Amino acid sequence: MIAPRAAAALALAAVLAVLALAPAPARAGSDLAHAAPATGLEPYRESLHVSQLPDGKVFALFSFDRTIRLGFPDGRHTTHYGLMPRSIGEVFQAFDVRELHLTFTQGRWDLDRWGHSPASAPSGVELWAWLNSTNVDAKWKGLTNALAGLFCASLNFIDQAVTTEPLLSFDPEGDISRKSGFQIRYGSLPREAVCTENLTPWAKLLPCQTKSGIADLLNAYRIFDGNFQSMGVHLTPKCATPDCSDTIFEFRQTFAVVLDNERINARRDWSFQTLFQRHIHTTCPFAASTTVHLHLNKLEHESVYILPTANAFSDTPTSIDRYFTVTQTPFFLDVHWEPENLNSRNPRLAPVKTHRYLSGVGQERGAIVVDFTNDLPTPMRATYFDSIPFILKMYLHTLRVVQRAGGNESTDASGIVRETFFQPAMDRLRPNVLELSLVLPPKSKTTISIDFDCTFLKYTEHHPDANHGFELGVGVLTLESNPFPPISDPESAAATPPDQPVRIYTESLLVRLPTPDFSMPYNVITLTCTLLALFFGSVFNMLTRGLRPVPIAGKSLLDRFRRSRKA
Amino acid sequence: MKVSLEPLSTRLFADRRTHIIVAIWLVLAFAAPVWWKTTEVYRAPLPFERIRQCDTPEALSLKLEVDIHLRLSGSAAASLSHGDAARVTEQVQRGISQVFSEAAPQSAGSRRVVLAFSVDGAVDPKSWPSDATPSDIDASLGKEHGRNGAYDVFVDCSSQTESVYVGQNRALFLQLPSGCSKDLIVSRTIATLSGLFGSEQRSLSKLYAGRRSRDIDYKSMRTVKYAPQYQIVLSLLVGNPQDNIVTWDIEKAANAYIAPFLESLSNISDFTITSQILNFAQLPTVPDDQRQSDGSVEFTMRPKSLTSFINSAEWNLASVVSLAPPINLILYIPPASFSPLVLLHTDGSPLASNAFLVPQWGGIVVRSLPKNTPRVHYSVDALHHIMEIFVEQLRGLLGVEQTHIVNSAQLLSGVHVQYASSPELGLTRWEVDRLFRARTVLNIVDAAQTLTSLANLLEQLSGMVVPDHIQTLVARSLDSIEHAKLDLEQKRYSSATFYARDAITSAEAAFFDPAMVPLLYFPDEHKFAIYMPYFVPVTVPVIIAIIREVRLRFGGTLSRRLSKKKTA
């Protein structure tokens, strides 16, 4: 047992040695060209961020970062893959993807109890990509189909009728600009149930799969038992040269999970073992670094005992930050609170929030209402994006903005809505898109509402469970500046730009449209046809048969019967 | 109460009834074509007759003509009298035609393919310089020498021993003892040619007989189904990177070894080469362990357990982008816990190559690494031997058959036979030509059969839509079949290969077109179920009414019936 472990440590040492030659991670792109011939493998890092949420649940964010090359400046595609799996590399190449963000999420991030999410994602599937092509719609269709096959998800249902092209939201996060001729496509599937069949293909894309490294903790039995799971695939371009003639890509896989430690454990204390029933038994041999960051908020009188000893820490009386570099395996993490009971106080409430709901009665018409709350003492610039499928007919003239601040109510939208983009839906071709550029005044609540009519769908367009209703995709509030203290560690801050936009997702909505009775189509056909046939028959008889009076002699019924017998 | 009806009013009533019934029937008569037209499934007219014609045995009986050019060297010419040189050509022609007319199956009513030879010859003293070896001359000819279906036979009569050298560039070299006779030249030439082309004739006949033949050999079962495009996927599978992190210099190696090989086959299919490294590749089975005499443990796998070697559920081998069939070439590094892993023959002896081929799927090479080698990098040189195995496996998978003189022991007893190899390409011109010829005839047959199947399917399923582009594809495929056959007759093999490829591609595109599927699932029973509840109750009184009306009008004269009624 000793020998293989020693070999693994040796392997790690070798990897570290190679990395030591490389310059700072920020310049990882430029050293790829030099490092590649020596190792043939792309730089790879993995990190785990763990924090305990105000209500005692544990939030874990796994990230797996690779710097990859998809093509060369002369336009040639990479056809030889190392740590980057061929299956997804080919997808990016074949559909000219410049930037891509795909998240699969189950559960809803509870802003009121957990504060803002460092891994915000709407429930269901969200996909947005910047494409570099003249034939964007065909490429987008191919991309959704290919990703559907790759991740065993119904991404192919993101068709023309639900695809949108946001103008204000979803700015590129990598080194491309909105003006450089690339085009964005956005689509979401709020109904998609995310489970292990999506996790397995996602995990297969990891260099060490779930066999070693921090991915070892991804125990499907436990993580799908949590309150929120979100797995993501992100591809962002980076310039490899100062003039950006050569582009490399950062390929990042993330897994965010909120686990209800108290329900599992009935205690505030937790460890990897109680949360995941696993520990990190070896490091991934390809990872240049494996880091674990622990962040806890506490009260001054509370004390926390953490095992093992951290490599670096920065504690304040109300917070604890520990940084671990995993070199020694197996790696356990144990958190023990003193006192043990949870004070559900000082929850770090989200200062900017948004909620969306339906108003109105009946299945014919209604209104969508969105609330924006800004509890900050400063105004907040933001964009709101909402894409409603064609099944609802929205009317822009019914857009109303009501603002409440300090007990005053005003309907003057001029100071709040700076720009409005609205795309009316076309049946089966494109959705309604409402995009607003907002300035949310300090300490205020802004409510917008817009009316809609329900459409009557063709019977094939209803879902198999027609009476469930239709789920509408989420609305997205993108804040232009990050008002919250970042809870990421300095190391991963190098990988993720600090000015990454903050997105707040609304709830998805369930609307009920006029629904036919699907239970007996054939009975309906038969009944209708019988009625029509009866009608036709009686009319036909009336037209073609003469009605004559029949002579009646005799008084009793019996006499009549006898007469007719005789006749 | 006595009822009396006016005869006039009864007559008026009868006329009116007739009008009503006729009107209803007129509506039905006019509505029927409208109904027929509106519920009709669009079917572009296909040339069924032409399709049937091109799949007959007569239409598919092909003749592949091969030109043989005899080149007698100075020494050979010297040992023959003046008229004999011309007679050699004539006799070789007669002899070889006789051999192949016997070899070709003569059963009527089945399609067949035959090789036919036309021989010409010349005395060409400069063709064989006295100090040159056959391989020198062969090399000097160059790869682009001649064309498919035209071969040079160099004959020289100046050596001590008899030898035959099959070159790599469409040339054959016969070295005969000095002072050789005309008969010797003729018999040796015939023997060599018939041996060389005999196996081709046999395998062509066998393949051509198609599925009816039960006698399909292992070689043809190995070959992947033809496609105009393949993806060659080179995968390095590492059992456990905790033991060894393995990398390979695959780009250079693929360019050096596999790309030229595939390049020479680019006329029949396009190939894309990609590579990947997959880590933590677990075997679905556990190899047997065997303790060696020196106490070390070796892990072995017998051919029986190799059937479950591929872990297709776990190994990420498939592409979600390309529809081209993949050919997987895998270098497998077993984890240290199963090293060394040795593949065994059926008899239990270890396989020297430690590699095996999965028919119609790909090839696998297993290489165990020594313990305590945390980092291993396969350089181009280290990959040399593995690439050779990959190329050999590709030859098998793509159906390249080794040039070989059948029955050389009997036909050419005492003659030293030597085959040139082609180290740069991995296959000789002889092999390429033969593969192209075989592929061409098979593609023609497959295209014809696919079109016939499509025609049969469409005739059976009347509810199937046939869009216009299917018609275009079918017409294109038929045209290409005809072009290919014409080119074969006129010995333009490369053009025939191209047309045959186009024919099969178009035919398969038409057959597998997704546009034809939707209405297939709307059977007639459903239509009846929907029409019946209305049309049965409606049509029955309408039909009875017309029958009664006809009987009333023509069963006897109306007036008589009416008067009868009146009297009653």
UniProtKB/TrEMBL annotation, chain A:
Endpoints of the signal sequence: 1-28
PANTHER family: GPI TRANSAMIDASE COMPONENT PIG-T, GPI TRANSAMIDASE COMPONENT PIG-T-RELATED
InterPro entries: PIG-T
Protein name: Subunit of the glycosylphosphatidylinositol transamidase complex-like protein
Keywords: Membrane, Signal, Transmembrane, Transmembrane helix
Pfam families registered for this protein in UniProt: Gpi16
Organism domain of life: Eukaryota
UniProt key word Iron: no
Transmembrane segments: 522-543
Keyword rRNA processing assigned: no
Organism in which the protein naturally occurs: Polyrhizophydium stewartii
Automatic annotation (TrEMBL), chain B:
Family annotation (Pfam families): PIG-S
UniProt entry keywords in alphabetical sequence: Endoplasmic reticulum, Glycoprotein, GPI-anchor biosynthesis, Membrane, Transmembrane, Transmembrane helix
Principal location: endoplasmic reticulum
Cellular compartment(s): Endoplasmic reticulum membrane
Membrane topology, record value: Multi-pass membrane protein
UniProt xrefs under InterPro entries: PtdIno-glycan_biosynth_class_S
Keyword Endoplasmic reticulum among UniProt keywords: yes
Name of the protein in its database record: GPI transamidase component
Organism: Polyrhizophydium stewartii
Top-level taxonomy: Eukaryota, Fungi, Fungi incertae sedis, Chytridiomycota, Chytridiomycota incertae sedis
